[in-house]
């Protein structure tokens, strides 16, 4: 199985690509076993779609790729703790494990307006079986916010 | 401004159309003032996209239609209480008010596997300003589940 650190590197690389394209600094990668299905970044501005957070966009791509609405056994790396929209979507997709780097609190400190509901709390409230593992490459993920700010004249 | 009942009728009509197309029995309509922007149904199976709940699909269409990621002043009717994915997405879109008919509990009784986090609880936890109004055409919305079951040989 691909390691959490390796999968997160793909998510970080995707987020960096998004930054160069003027997108928000969030990335997500999805794998099943050793097989990487997708690695992509937030497309909210690119697609004029408020729902196109990195995780949602990655799930859409992965569903198409697998020709399935369920991604059982999938491992997911998100550069930032999933918001409730993304965490619930990952639950609906029945993924096995979600790794994340930066926290919602880190994103808030970087100026992002967050729905401050911890992903773990949402899973517990909803009695979800999805496993959630925090602090994977956290500093590298937090550095995306700095990189984004240096590349974005008008914070958005 | 369009009334809650009228907007919900559009969501119900969209859900009925979805049922005839073999989709899950959920509809959503979005208006700004008197202007209806979109009315659509769940497209999860049609698009092989686990994220394409009625509300998410409606938000995507509305963002495209308005050429904006924000839908301030929008009123939204959802035939069923939004799940955390959809409720958070509606928050991100900055809609003004969300009406819903059937409850998550009604959906569970109809056999749908739900993330049992009440939409109002999510809004409170996240300190969201979105206004949420329940019990709009609740019986008509619950009847969609029965209609769907009669039209769907294999419950899904």
Question: Can you describe this structure?
Answer:
Two copies of one chain form a homodimer. Chain A has helices at 4-20, 44-47, 54-66, 84-92, 104-109, 119-125, 138-151, and strands spanning 27-32, 35-41, 74-80, 97-102, 131-133. Chain A has 156 residues and is α/β, with parallel strands linked by helices. Chain A has a five-stranded mixed β-sheet with strand order 2-1-3-4-5. The first copy, chain A, is globular and about 40 Å long. The mean pLDDT of chain A is 95.
How would you concisely characterize the structure shown here?
Two copies of one chain form a homodimer. Chain A has 156 residues and is of the alpha/beta class.
Give the proportion of residues in helices of chain A.
40-55%
Number of helices of chain A: 7
Given helix and strand content, the structural type of chain A is alpha/beta
Radius of gyration of chain A: 14 Å
Major sheet description of chain A? 5 strands, mixed
Largest protein interface, residues of each chain: A-B, 35 and 35 residues
Strand percentage of chain A? 15-25%
